[in-house]
Amino acid sequence: MTDYDVLRVFCAPNGGYGNEIGVVRDGSRVPGTEERRELAAKLGFGETVFVDDPERGVLDVHTPAGRPPLAGDACVGTAWLLDVPELVVPAGTVGVRLDGEFTWIEARPEWAPPHTLRHCADAAEVDALPVPAPGEEPGGAPGEGQVEAPGKRPGLYAWAWEDEPAGRVRARAFPGPAGTGEDEATGTAALLLTASLGRALNITQGTGSQLLTAPQPGGWVEVGGRVRLER
To answer: In whole angstroms, what is the distance from residue 18 CA to residue 22 CA?
Structure first.
């Protein structure tokens, strides 16, 4: 079996929650796209990262849905692991900074896979949303405050203010038929929500993951979180 690290990304303050990802530090050991797809499926993580150049931070990320141009968990986790100033992904060059217990990436909203953003009335409404059955489209028809992604909806990002003046948000994500029933932490959706609202956010997603965001000059957005090495 190819050596790989397991990281938990967007953890709560106690180190729990977040998403597990796999990182193959020496991507040359799995050189082909089909071999990488097979290994990613075997490992079973939401995102499996193959590092093709650790000094430049060149990444190839595989998810159950394919190879995204930008993957939030993968970028935040691998940036922490490699300790590099930037990452190179299919969408472009992602800025990186480490700030105490948080690792931050800076990317453009248009690089993120599309999500449908649904503004719910309150956190209780977010919590009450049912998890879609396998193969079922999440969320149904657009509701008030819902921003439709272009083309076929790959999933739903439902959110509500917990404390609007403080920028505190409650959110849940449902990737839909192409992915799992519910995603515990979704960095790219947080990036899109931040761009839509135009303000810094402190997001609690899923059962307890924490994602921090902040808009930056020139249309860029930062997304940050805690990373923990599982093994």
So the answer is: 13
